[in-house]
Amino acid sequence: MTFSSFRETSGPRTLYDKVFDAHVVHKDDDGSYLLYIDRHIIHEVTSPQAFEGLENADRKVRRRDCTLATVDHNIPTESRKDFESIDTFIKQADSRLQVKTLEKNVKTHNVPYFGMTDPRQGIVHTIGPEQGFTLPGTTVVCGDSHTSTHGAFGSLAFGIGTSEVEHVLATQTIIQARSKNMRINVPGKLNPGVTSKDLILHIIGQIGTAGGTGCVIEFAGEAIESLSMEARMSMCNMSIEAGARAGMIKPDETTFKYTKGRPLAPKGAEWVKAIKYWKTLHSDEGAHFDYDITIKAEDVMPTITWGTSPQDALPISGSVPDPAKENDPIRKAGMERALKYMGLEPNTPLKSIKIDKVFIGSCTNARIEDLRNASAVVKGHKLADNVIQAMVVPGSGLVKAQAEREGLDKIFEEAGFEWREAGCSMCLGMNPDILQPHERCASTSNRNFEGRQGALARTHLMSPAMAAAAGIYGHFVDIRDHKYRDNDIPAVAVTSESESESESLEGKAYEHDEPIQPSEATEEVANDELKDIPAATTAVKKSQAPTASGMKPFVKLDGLAAPLDKANVDTDAIIPKQFLKTIKRTGLKNGLFYELRFVKDEQGKDKETDFVLNVNPWRKAEVLVVTGDNFGCGSSREHAPWALKDFGIKSIIAPSFGDIFYNNSFKNGLLPIRIEQSVILEKLIPIAQKGGNLVIDLPNQNISDSEGTVLVEHFDIEPFRKHCLVNGLDDIGLTLQKETFITEYETRRRDIYSFLEGGSSLLRFDNIPKKKFNATTFSIVHEKW
Ligand SMILES: CC(C)[C@H](C(=O)O)[C@@H](O)C(=O)O
Ligand code: SF4
Fold it and tell me: Could you tell me where the Basic and acidic residues compositional bias lies (predicted)?
């Protein structure tokens, strides 16, 4: 049997090329591809507008068996012991609305769903692998940038925006351009005390947050091969912080061992067939990589961040850098701003910096191995007196249950840590878990952007062991100096899954021979708790509804240009988390660049700063001219282009863009244009600074001033994107015209990749407590499965 029906080249291929090729449904003459999506995970923040669009266009979820939903970002992490209903449990009205909207949507469309009363609920990127929903060689998408996590299985996994969520729901495909291939080789062995989190922070420190832009990174080499699946997931998780579209690691025995026996992993003959295929998934000898980078394992030390970008990473033995020693003026200004925000003095030894809080959680580091590593540090110690709060938030209900079986909860609690329920929590603080202004946190999460964990809060990223140690000592420490009690040193650069976990996951609890439809559990909750969803969501009038379809054509724009002299503007800065709780695409104007545009006055009211968009004439700007690289990096939130559009911005010019933001912009008729930095500085910025207009001619792909002088003779744009913008075309409508190709692909898929059939529809929902549960019921139910 041949496993692939499409091949771009006859020569050697990379892992990425192989997985990409295997999913090509159709290649258009303009070079864009339609890719089939095997696994689609959904959460409450980025799906409401997608379901709304789907319903307004009278479309259905094409493959509910390829779809899995859960709630994670908004939910409180306090004990659910007394959980009665979402109405009483979620106190924040906007969070509650998002959760209930998801529940309504999964019910309407019969999508398998792990709600708050389901012990399998957890962070999207924890539950996919845990259930065996994520499998080697699959395409995995989610309206979430850290979907890259799933690449640890050799799957092609990437974050998408809400319009694309709608596209996948309707068509089970996505329109993609081919990315470049980057390989990061890590030869040698990691030093004792060094985890995959240190390694990925080190890599980002080296290549920068724009280093992987336009690429899919394959992590390879001895140090990578020796990592456990959990450690690999932490690596791939943060490949988005390196600017990459996705991160991948070739599947091997470690992968197969982790996957075997998971509820949705293939069984019997299908397992044998799957393994045969998965073993072909590696980069061929001689395959071409556009970039090949080597990072020696022995050079990596326990690493933490000092600033407000994940690339601000240094070995723990280092000191806060000194801007006075930086020659590049843009970088120098960035460093000064970061140090001011972080409340740090140049040249301070990192180990002497005191902390206020600890957060052990997030999709990067809240799996069982992470909690084992952190608890081994904590065991027999107490939190330092200056530490106000330390939280441990497991990645899923199952991680929590496993940790409790191993007694880790007790170890943490005895040391003074809080033991919480699963969710995203303080990673971005869409729920009540936030830092207060100026609090400094040792965090195992992945983003240290300004305001990420709370307004004016200070985040330092590090491994679970290092965060736990910071809690014990009250300041950052080199984990290699820590004295473990009882010689209880965990295998931090673990080589394979611990037996106990694999066994529990292979146990009876997860058998699923008889497919059972998701029925009552989903239904009952949804029926009871839809009361406060406004009518507009349940019945939007077609004519009023903003959907992905029918965009206004973008042809020529003659618009006032505003200058923005910044690099690495992340989407958290473009639209902070508190504005993500909407279930609409509009009304985000005031949230745009909120932290930059407003400060609080004495009465606690918003007062405008002198940020460029608050100043005349730029209040009316339609073009944003950015001098620095990597505009729109970070989160996949489509709220970023929505907010820019709401403000009136129609085009953004920058040297480079975050991949997901770039993509999301097109879906909303917002034109991002990549122009070399020297040209921006020389020709465009002077006009923007004067408050002049720029004329962007999309059909002719050039930019002039209002007198007609051509400033940029040619800018690049992929033909398909141009075609859609100029004609205001609806992607989904276009894709649905390719129905024959999609059904043909599905027929082939059923045969060639038969081990993917069934998907989430094989999950059991019969044994889940429906209304109420407590930790004890949980583990009993879990044992019984
Ligand atoms: C809310 C979601 C869109 C976002 C993401 O894409 O990453 C979030 O998970 C984050 O970490 O900022
Ligand atoms: S990065 Fe944080 S907020 Fe985003 S999915 Fe992961 S845990 Fe959730």
Answer: 505-515
Helix, strand counts (H, E) of the chain: 29, 28
DSSP alpha helix (H) spans, 279-396: 329-342, 368-378
Q: What ligand 1 atom has the least distance to the C-alpha of 639?
A: 3
Quick check: CB of 159 below 6 Å from ligand 1?
yes
pLDDT of 399 above 70? yes
CA of 412 to the centre of ligand 1 (A): 28
CA pair distance 50, 69, nearest whole angstrom: 13
**Using 50, 70 and 90 to split pLDDT, how confident is the model at 172?**
very high
Q: Of 105, 90, 94, which Cα lies nearest the Cα of 43?
A: 105
Q: How confident is the model at residue 292 (pLDDT cuts 50, 70, 90)?
A: very high
Full DSSP string of 687-724: HHHHT-EEEEETTTTEEEETTS-EEES-----HHHHHH
> What does the buried/exposed string (b/e) look like for 581-597 if buried means 16 or more CB atoms within 10 Å of the residue's CB?
bbbebeebeebbbbbbb
The predicted model gives 467-473 an average pLDDT of 98
**Is there an atom of ligand 1 within 6 Å of 659 CB?**
no
> Which numbered ligand comes closest to the C-alpha of 141?
1
Ligand 2 site, residue 569, Cβ cutoff 6 A: no
The alpha carbon of 315 and the centre of ligand 1 are apart by a number of angstroms equal to 27
CA distance 688 to 209: 27
Residue 12 has pLDDT above 80, yes or no: yes
Q: State residue 69's pLDDT score.
A: 98
Sign of the Cα torsion 110, 396, 256, 173 reads positive
CA of 428 to the centre of ligand 2 (A): 7
User: What are the pLDDT digits (tens) for 646-655?
Assistant: 999 999 999 9
Q: What is the pLDDT of residues 497-545, one digit of tens each?
A: 444 444 444 332 233 333 333 333 333 433 344 444 544 343 333 433 3
State the pLDDT at residue 8: 85
Report ipTM (2 d.p.): 0.99
d(CA 696, CA 698): 6
Strands (E), 573-726: 598-600, 606-608, 623-626, 651-654, 671-674, 693-697, 702-705, 710-712
Closest to 235 in 3D by CA, of 221, 226, 224: 224
365 beta partners:
none
HSE (CB half, 13 Å, CA atoms) of 577? Answer: 23
**SS3 assignment, position 30:** coil
**Residue 146 is encoded by which pair of tokens?**
């850290």
Counting ligands in written order, the one closest to the CA of 428 is 2
Query: How confident is the model over 433-438, as a mean pLDDT?
Result: 98
Distance 320 CA to ligand 1 centre (A): 28
Dihedral Cα 765, 770, 774, 779, nearest 10 deg: -20
Q: Are 320 and 306 spatial neighbours (Cβ–Cβ below 8 Å)?
A: yes
Rounded to two decimals, the pTM is 0.92
| Confidence category of residue 9, pLDDT binned at 50, 70, 90 | confident
Using the mean position of ligand 1's atoms as its centre, give its distance from the Cα of residue 66 in Å.
21
Q: Is the CB of 664 under 6 A from ligand 1?
A: no
Q: In the chain, what are the domains?
A: 15-298+755-762 (3.30.499.10), 310-481 (3.30.499.10), 556-729 (3.20.19.10)
Q: Whose CA is nearest to atom 4 of ligand 1?
A: 635
In the block, which residue shows the tokens 């292979």?
A: 506
pLDDT on residue 65: 98
> Cα(451) to centroid of ligand 2, in Å?
15
- Neighbouring C-beta atoms of residue 514, cutoff 10 Å: 8
